[in-house]
Design brief:
Blueprint: E1 5-9, H1 33-39, E2 47-49, E3 55-57, H2 62-77, H3 93-109, E4 122-126, H4 133-142, E5 145-150, H5 153-165, E6 172-176, E7 194-199, H6 207-221, H7 239-242, H8 247-261, E8 266-272, H9 279-289, E9 293-301, E10 304-312, H10 316-326, H11 328-337
Parallel strand pairs: 1-9, 4-5, 4-7, 5-6, 7-8
Antiparallel strand pairs: 2-3, 8-10, 9-10
Helix pairs in contact: 1-2, 3-4, 8-9
Length: 338
């Protein structure tokens, strides 16, 4: 079996040469707190001065983080209504946006450098969560049609409320995976096709490991304060969002294995990989499964480094046929708008 072509990509860098957010990411540079408060007045109650005298929020406060996300979504993406149930994952938005911009670049790379836009582009968000963050940003940035899948009924109810409140029902659909041991089976209909899938897998192998990781984050951020009790996880998260048996590597291996079962129904599969050491085992498995193309995109947000891996079982000719059949209209709209 031939080895799939692997194309690593490096994150963009600022003028100092340091890794930075994607060039199209709306969250580069310092946050404009007056503008954020104007968009979401309730944020004003959470604005503080950091040790450098700059406006910020207390990222150790889950309520502050939740309202901050609401303000970002309202100011930058026009999402008027957004909330999540207590204890559910409240994602850092800049990093989530970077993943989507990287996927847009991936699709553009097989479309003569033009990002295919519009609802003809079908994206599947595996584990969309209560926050529904990827469909919201991806729909606003590129007009793609999203299907979000999750095993958690409460999370899906929250996502449906967000979608309905923002009148996005025609461009964001939601489905429940009834079998917690499966990822694609039971979610994809036999005749369905998706241009891209994305996934933010559970990082940890246990609750204890998740809690330990949170404590390391406090030390790195310099937010440990013996005078007050800090939350275990400032960004929240239910068990299924944060850990699974075998941790991230076990999950992404299962994701890759199941992707081979629906190889002809998806042009590009992808997943975030938080631990760099998990990339090589995933690439080796994809090789054994017969992936024809594998790409890794590195990303950076401040001191945080991450990456996503994307793969396709379609060969170059099949991907070109896919593009011509499905992206022609989207490509024409792009040309007309430019």
């Amino acid at each position: 079996m031939p080895t799939p072509k692997t194309s690593p990509r490096k994150p963009s860098a600022d003028n100092s040469g340091k890794p930075s957010l994607h060039p199209r990411n709306r969250h580069s540079g310092r946050y404009d707190f007056p503008a954020l408060v104007a968009a979401c007045p309730e944020l004003a109650a959470f604005v503080i001065r950091n040790p450098y005298g700059k406006q910020s929020i207390d990222f150790a406060n889950p309520d502050a983080v939740r309202v901050f996300n609401r303000a970002l979504l309202k100011q930058f993406y026009g999402i008027a209504h957004w909330d999540i149930p207590p204890g559910y994952l409240c994602p850092p938005i800049p990093g989530r946006a970077d993943y989507l911009h990287g996927l847009a670049d991936l699709l553009a790379s097989q479309n003569d450098g033009v990002i295919p836009r519009g609802a003809s582009i079908q994206a599947l968000d595996v584990g969309t969560g209560a926050n529904c963050i990827y469909p919201l940003i991806g729909q606003r940035e590129y007009g793609w049609h999203f299907t979000g899948a999750d095993i958690d009924a409460v999370a899906l109810a929250s996502a449906r409320t967000i979608v309905s409140a923002n009148k996005l029902n025609k461009t964001i659909g939601l489905r429940q995976q009834s079998d917690p041991q499966r990822i694609f089976a039971g979610v994809l209909a036999p005749d369905e096709r998706f241009d891209v899938t994305l996934c933010n897998p559970p990082f940890h192998a246990s609750q204890a490991e998740a809690s330990s990781g949170s404590q390391r984050k406090w030390r790195n951020l310099g937010k440990l304060d013996p005078k007050r009790k800090l939350p275990v996880l400032n960004f929240g998260g239910q068990a299924r969002e944060l850990w699974c048996e075998g941790g991230e590597l076990a999950f992404i291996r299962r994701l890759a294995t199941e992707s081979a079962e629906v190889a002809q129904q998806v042009c590009w599969f992808s997943t975030l990989v938080s631990k760099g050491g998990n990339v090589a085992p995933l690439q080796a498995l994809l090789n054994r499964l017969g992936a024809s193309q594998v790409q890794m995109q590195e990303m950076a947000q401040g001191q945080k480094r991450s990456r996503f891996v994307a793969w396709s079982f379609l060969d170059e000719g099949e991907r070109e046929a896919w593009r011509l059949a499905r992206w022609g209209a989207a490509r024409g709209r792009n040309a007309a708008e430019s």
